[in-house]
Amino acid sequence: MIRCKDFTILNDAYKSNPTSVLAALNTMYSMLGYSQKIVILGDMLGIGDEIIAMHKDIGIKIKPNEIDYVLTYGEFGRYISEAAIINFGKERVFHFNDKGELVKKAKELIKPNALVLVKASRPLQMEDVVEGLKK
Asked: Domains, the chain, ranges and CATH?
């Protein structure tokens, strides 16, 4: 956990697969006292032939009553967004292919006392997003 001036980042940007994403989401759901919860999810790599279906499944399983916004990044992250829109609507889900644009949008959305999860497979180097949010 990284405590920033007005919000907290839950940095889990090292390894990602369906089980670990669902565990991270459950952790987010259980963390009380935050004004807002935002998830930033990138590609889950090295998970097999059903990679697209697995990303879509994550998008469907994110609970809209527990999470305020879903932001995704990467080639497969867009499938998380496409599926999440079904439960969240287009106004609460955003996909990016550019980390700078992702950080910019996240900063627009983040309210004081927010909790922000950043999670993706290591090759996406999502620490760039974490560092961008901290600035």
From this structure: 2-134 (3.90.190.20)
Backbone φ and ψ of 130, nearest 5°: -60, -50
Could you give the dihedral angle defined by the CA atoms of residues 73, 49, 87 and 1, in that order, rounded to the nearest 10 degrees?
-50
Helix (H, G, I), strand (E, B) or coil at 36: strand
The answer to whether the CB of 37 falls within 8 A of the CB of 68 is yes
Q: Closest Cα to residue 27, out of 119, 125, 131, 134?
A: 119
Triad 55, 130, 101: Cα angle to 5° = 70
51, with CB counted inside 10 A (0-12, 13-18, 19+), is middle
pLDDT tens sequence across 36-59: 999 999 999 999 999 999 999 999
What's the rounded Cα separation, in Å, for the pair 42 and 120?
4
Q: Which residues pair with 73 in a beta bridge?
A: 42, 96
Task: For tokens 């644009």, name the residue.
Answer: 101
pTM: 0.97
